[in-house]
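Priority: medium. Attachment 1 of 2:
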């Protein structure tokens, strides 16, 4: 036995299966559940999904796909007061966008309310549940502590008939909220607090977004979840670590009812540096208008990341790469950024855009002349071909590409210096125009017509290559640059009771107006993604109008890139 087990373990490691895959493969080999694999993603529709949910989605749908199984989408809508159809719709959109399909298996916990009610009557009839008329405070006090056993409720041993009749009257709306609850009868001395006669049902005279006013009693999460799993035929019920000590209750409920028994498996939730990952906190940001909405590109929500320019492929690759573990940890935001960089590096067309324009006039270029120069769309993929960019006497370059008094290592433009304009010509700065305050407002340059395309026939070299945009044809744009949402890496380190919003980064958004982009961008499609050479990856925002494009910077290029470029590629 022991040898077999070790062999299996060694084999798993060789194939680098994660621990959940190992469990599933053993279950399949043992013929458990007839070899079926059936998972589910069970969001509560009380907010928009975030990148942590993406991890759970990729895991659940991914396992189903890998093992030829199925994955359900189930809305865990047992709490009538916090839930909303807006959230339901956004969740479906996000799961689809991530690339997953629940086919005809869309479920709502609320569709099972009647069934759960019937299960509850069965528990009462079996002497496994009772109506408790204590107040919530009394119930809480009676539960004991981690070191002390709880005490039995005075209602615990009331006759079954009495509990049954009260439960029916609860359902029919005879009692106000909080008057009584249904509790499981398990063990008030259990070392596991979750087994100390947990609440199963409470009275809530509240309309539900799907069942309306049909119900005024609602099941507790713990009493609903496992039964839902079972009724849907789930084989592996994957959840996050905080439910580990709910598992005995999960198992207890199913055993009392004698129904199909899925296996609950817990994994560590994703935490990312410099952000928060709880719907409650994200809702706080939205409501207090610290961000423009759930889809603000600074949010770790799926819709925020989408608007920022993240692709489904990059999020899936990220989730795959971070893997699943049994212990909580903090993943560095850089991993997420690297995933989108790698994806966009392969796929985003290159364009030129100037974020902080400085005007350049080429003195020896004929006035009114415009020529088209050929530019490469994607050096990573020749199939992207080339495009034409206009060149003329008046251009914009980046303010930071000029220094009046440059230090030794600065290889870009300065008085008397020559650089290459990408895909165009060598230009030399011959004069600097300033305003009354002494700010540089324009450069006068000359160009060398013999260097068309960016190479000198005499073999002369320049040390810097900079990007530019022809002024008359330039497209105006607003560009939004983003920084970390939080000023500290670990939101979990903020002491309980302290206002975590104190740690919001006040510089998380920088808006640049008056950016100048090459004209090919005028026809960019909504959500289109580009690399603005040397400036990063950008995505067209929905705030764009006919008169002004708006771009979000998804992510910068590799930090070392700018340095490499300025030495002349
Ligand atoms: P939050 O704490 O952000 O409000 P939640 O757990 O309450 O999230 P649910 O809607 O209940 O949100 O979650 C749906 C599924 O997504 C659950 O199975 C949950 O375990 C999983 N999930 C939620 N947050 C994370 C996370 N950070 N990492 C991995 N999985 C997560
Ligand atoms: Mg939850």
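Attachment 2 of 2:
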């Amino acid at each position: 036995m022991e040898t077999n087990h070790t062999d299996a373990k060694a084999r798993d490691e060789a194939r680098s299966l994660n621990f959940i895959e190992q469990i599933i493969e053993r279950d399949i080999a043992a013929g458990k559940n007839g070899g079926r694999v059936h998972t589910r993603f069970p969001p509560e529709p009380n907010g928009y999904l975030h990148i942590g949910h993406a991890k759970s989605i990729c895991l659940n749908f991914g396992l189903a796909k890998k093992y030829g199984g199925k994955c359900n989408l189930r809305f865990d809508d047992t709490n009538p007061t916090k839930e909303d159809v807006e959230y339901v719709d956004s969740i479906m959109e996000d799961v689809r966008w991530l690339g997953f399909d629940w086919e005809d298996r869309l479920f709502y916990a609320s569709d099972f309310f009647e069934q759960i009610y019937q299960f509850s009557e069965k528990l009462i009839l079996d002497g496994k549940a009772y109506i408790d008329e204590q107040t919530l405070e009394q119930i809480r006090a009676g539960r004991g502590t981690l070191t002390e056993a709880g005490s039995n409720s005075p209602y615990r041993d009331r006759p079954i008939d009495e509990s049954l009749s009260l439960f029916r009257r609860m359902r029919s709306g005879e009692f106000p909220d909080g008057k009584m609850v249904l509790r499981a009868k398990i063990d008030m001395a259990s070392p596991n607090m979750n087994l100390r006669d947990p609440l199963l049902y409470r009275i809530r005279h509240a309309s539900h977004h799907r069942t309306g006013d049909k119900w005024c009693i609602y099941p507790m999460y713990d009493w609903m979840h496992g039964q839902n799993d079972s009724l849907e035929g789930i084989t592996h019920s994957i959840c996050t670590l905080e439910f580990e000590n709910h598992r005995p209750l999960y198992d207890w409920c199913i055993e009392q009812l004698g129904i199909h028994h899925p296996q609950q498996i817990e994994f560590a939730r994703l935490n990312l540096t410099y952000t928060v990952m709880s719907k409650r906190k994200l809702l706080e940001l939205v409501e207090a208008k610290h961000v423009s909405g759930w889809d603000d590109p600074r949010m770790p929500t799926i819709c925020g990341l989408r608007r920022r320019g993240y692709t489904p492929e990059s999020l899936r690759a990220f989730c795959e790469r971070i893997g699943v573990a049994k212990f909580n940890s903090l993943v560095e935001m850089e991993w997420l950024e690297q995933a989108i960089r790698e994806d966009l590096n392969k796929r985003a067309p290159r364009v030129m855009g100037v974020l902080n324009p400085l005007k350049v006039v080429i003195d020896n270029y004929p006035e009114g002349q415009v020529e088209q120069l050929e530019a490469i769309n994607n050096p990573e993929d020749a199939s992207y071909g080339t495009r034409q960019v206009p060149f003329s006497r008046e251009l914009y370059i980046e303010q930071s590409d000029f220094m009046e008094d440059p230090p030794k290592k600065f290889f870009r433009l300065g008085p008397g210096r020559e650089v290459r304009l990408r895909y165009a010509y060598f230009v030399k700065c011959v004069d600097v125009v300033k305003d009354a305050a002494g700010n540089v407002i324009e450069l006068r340059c000359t160009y060398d017509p013999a260097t068309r395309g960016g190479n000198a026939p005499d073999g002369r070299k320049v040390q810097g290559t900079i990007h530019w945009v022809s002024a008359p044809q330039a497209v105006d744009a607003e560009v939004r640059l983003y920084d970390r949402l939080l000023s500290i890496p670990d939101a979990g380190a903020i002491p309980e009771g302290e206002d975590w919003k104190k740690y919001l980064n006040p510089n998380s958004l920088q808006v640049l107006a008056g950016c100048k982009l090459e004209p090919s961008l005028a026809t960019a499609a909504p959500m289109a993604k580009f690399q603005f050479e040397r400036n990063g990856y950008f995505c067209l925002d929905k705030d764009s109008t006919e008169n002004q494009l708006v771009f979000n910077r998804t992510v910068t290029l590799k930090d070392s890139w700018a340095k490499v470029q300025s030495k002349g590629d």
